[in-house]
Amino acid sequence: MDLIYRSTRDNSETATASQAILKGLATGGGLFVPDRIPPLDLPLTSLASMDYRQVAYEVMSRFLTDFTPEELKYCIDHAYDDKFDTSSIVEIVEKDGAYYLELFHGATIAFKDMALSILPYLLTTSARKNQVKNEIVILTATSGDTGKAALAGFADVPGTKIIVFYPKHGVSPIQEKQMVTQKGDNTFVIGIEGNFDDAQTGVKKMFSDPDLAAEMDAAGFQFSSANSINIGRLVPQIAYYVYSYANLLARGRISEGEKINIVVPTGNFGNILAAYYAKQMGLPVDRLICASNENKVLFDFFGTGTYDKNRQFILTSSPSMDILISSNLERLIYQITGKDAEKNKIFMNQLSSGGTYTITEEMRAQLEDFYGNYASEEETAEAIRSMYRTCGYVLDTHTAVASAVYKKYLKDTGDRKPALIASTASPFKFTRSVMNAIDPANDGKSDFELVDELTEISGVSVPRAIEEIRSAPVLHDTVCETEDMCREVRRILGL
Ligand SMILES: *Cc1c(COP(=O)(O)O)cnc(C)c1O
After folding, report:
1. Interacting residues of 330 by C-beta distance below 8 A, sequence separation 6+
2. In angstroms, rounded to a whole number, what is the distance separating the alpha carbons of residues 399 and 425?
3. pTM value?
4. For the segment 200-212, what is each residue's pLDDT rounded down to a tens digit?
C-alpha cells in the first residue's frame, strides 16, 4: 500500500509521494509529511556493502512508494553521476576527533546538490505519472545555495521554468556570481531588496494564492517548489545519513548498533529534519545537535519552548543560515502535537501574525533528541583558524559553526559518542570569510586572488564550479522590491 502524505495544517488533505513532490506546498500553506516513517527493515551490515546509489535507493524507495523501481533507479542513476567530483558522491573524513561528512562534491559545491541534482528527475517523473500537461514553474527563495543548485538542476529541463529570488545584499560574492551567470533559456534570477525571510514569505504567498493558481492554469503553468518545503528535497537527504552510518560501519569505525551523534549547521531546518527522519527509520542515532549562527532563534526555541522571530536579522559570514523563520520546523511541531493539524495551525498562525508561539510542556518533552547551541562570528572564525592550524583542513563558515557548536556540546555534556558533522559547503564558496578567518591580512585581496591562495594553503585544487565563473558573463541583473516579486513572476510568465 502506498505511503500517504498529509498536510501539516489539514489532516484531510492527502497526496501520494509524486503528487506531494509536484505540489511542493499543500493547499492552505501546510507542508506534506509522510503518514508514518517507514522502518529501515534491512540489516545495517548489508547496507555497509552498498555504494551511495544503492543506499539511496533503499532509503528513497521506502518513502516514494508510488514510483516504480525502474523510475526511481533512473532518477538516482542520472542524479548521482560524474556531476560529482568523487565517485563515492560524498566523503567522510576524520578530523580533530569527529567525522566530517563532506556533502559538497556536487556541481555547485554546497550540500543542496545532494537533493537538487535529483529533484528535477523526481519532478518530471511525477509530472508524467500524474498526466500533468502544464509547464512546471519552479519558484524558489534562496539564502544563497539553493538558488544555484536548483538553477543547475533545472537549466534546460524540458517542461520547466525556474525563477529564483535571492537577497541582493545577503549572499556571498561567489554565491551571487554563481547565480547571475547561470545559462539556460528557462532560468530567471532576481535579487530582492530584502532578506531571505522576505523572499521565502513572498514565495509562499504566491504558492497559496488561489487566484494566481487559476490564472496560471489557464495559461498552461503550475508552480512547484525547489525549497526544502518540498518533500522531494527532504527524502534524498535522509539517504546520506544512512550511507554515512553504513560507511563508518564498513570501515570498522563503529560497531553495528552503536549510537552516533549528528551535528548539523542549521537554517531552514531541512537538513537536520532529514537526520531526525533517519533516526526514526531506526538508524542508531542518539542526539541531533542543531547548530545556529548568531540568528539563534532555534537555540532559544530548544532552550525555552518559545519560538520568537521578533529580533534583528543579522547578516553573518554563514549567509545560508541567516534565517529567522525555519520552515521545516513546522514538520517537527506537527509531529510533537501528536499529528494534530488544528493545533499546529494555531501555532503557525501565531507565528505569522505575532511572530512567536510557545509550545506546551508535553510537546517539549518530545524534543529530547535535540540539543541546540550557536556560535558567534568570532567563535566561527576561531573554529576555522584552529582547524586549519591543527589539521591543515579548511572548513567553510557554515561547517565551522557546526564545529564550534560541537565543541560546546562536548563541554556541556562530556558525551564522547562518535560524532558525524554535516559539512555543508566547500570553503571555496565563502573564500573571503574563510581566508580572513585564517589571516586578517587577506582582507585587501580580490575574491579570485583569495581563491588561488586558498588552493595554495589547503592543497585542494580549485573546484570546477569556481573555475567556471571566473570569467563568465553576467546574464541576470534584475533587482526588485519585495512587494514586486509577484509582478516579476507575472512578467516572466506573460500573465
Ligand atoms: C542551506 C544551507 C544550510 C542550512 O540548511 P537547512 O536545511 O536550511 O537547515 C547550511 N549550510 C549551507 C552551506 C547551506 O547551503
Report:
1. 8, 30, 31, 344, 348
2. 7
3. 0.95
4. 999 989 988 999 9
